[in-house]
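Case study 2.
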Amino acid sequence: MHRLLDGKPVNSCLVIVLQSRGHEITTVEGLMPATGLGGLQQAFLSEGAQPYKRRAIAGLGLDLIARISDMSPRHQLFEQALT
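Prediction:
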């Protein structure tokens, strides 16, 4: 599962716990609304996305959306972020 470490996405499988000491950690749950599903999560469910890594990918997507100010190239940026 991916997390944000100091606001940057990292693969938590590759980060040793001691490397996280003193850093801000945000989980996928921290990016989601307090109640219900967020728009991106709902879109994944509506489109029948496979459950494997769905939450991690949604978290990466939410982080990417938060960092993009120009709406037009989002599709290409999502493809790049997921590869």
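Helices lie at 17-20, 28-31, 39-46, 54-67, 74-82.
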